[in-house]
Amino acid sequence: MNTLLGIGSRVNHAEFGDGVIINLKSNGYTITFLQHGVKILKFDAPLTIIEALEPDSDLVSLFDVEQSLTRILQKWVDQTELVPLGDKWKGGKLILKPGRADLSQKEMPIDGFFHKIVMVRDRLRVLEQRVNASQLDDEEKINIQQYITRIYGSLTSFNLLFKNQHQQFVGEKTTADV
Description:
This protein has helices at 57-76, 110-133, 138-154; strands at 10-13, 17-25, 28-33, 37-41, 47-51, 93-96, 106-109. 34% of the residues lie in helices and 21% in strands.
């Protein structure tokens, strides 16, 4: 189906039967089916059109805006905020010296290491947001959130590298912290 149907269009779906389009979202049609209730189907889902209504021009423009915003947000979701390294560490090196004398040490610029730590922090935040927005039940969300909080707590050792305290890792808070 290549044409966009408007609200009120009547359709038939092979599995769900007869239905009426009640909304258009960026991810597809919201359709109320007589026998199966409300379902969201992608725009390219196989539907037999019983009665087609033109989409409302305002609704289509809102739909277009929603699709555009979705694309823009997806493009920028992996962009990290600018997090400054503490001044005393700028230009510094991280030196890893093995315990065995026959092995050579490894050096790495602190700012490169710090960038990787910030990326871990940002990925954890995205994971946390996705868990909270997921269809998991509340108990599963809480269990996963506790693991994420413990990971933040394990990473607090790296807080000395951050210039700004509000950008640091925060683990579990005790009653004294609140």
